[in-house]
């Protein structure tokens, strides 16, 4: 189990240190967008969507690091996910993957 390995937690803390600011930005943007729209009234669902958006940005930040690109891409993703929301990003990703599957 990876959660019992101390190096796993060191990697998690390192990812949070490197991408924490972008993740906080995403969390706040999503939460503010939800408040502005007023469609989701349950606080638990608001928090869950905000956390999911922050995790998406963490994954983007880790991917950007592995490819050796600028960390600014994580902030771009933070704004993108924060403004559009998790549902819109999921729909965009689904359409992109379907197009790529059709090309094969």
Automatic annotation (TrEMBL):
Alphabetized UniProt keyword annotations: Membrane, Transmembrane, Transmembrane helix
UniProt keyword Glycosyltransferase, yes or no: no
Entry annotated with the keyword Membrane: yes
Transmembrane segments annotated in the record for this chain: 20-36, 48-65, 71-89
NCBIfam families registered for this protein in UniProt: holin_lambda (TIGR01594)
This protein's name: Phage holin, lambda family
The species this protein was found in: Pseudomonas extremaustralis
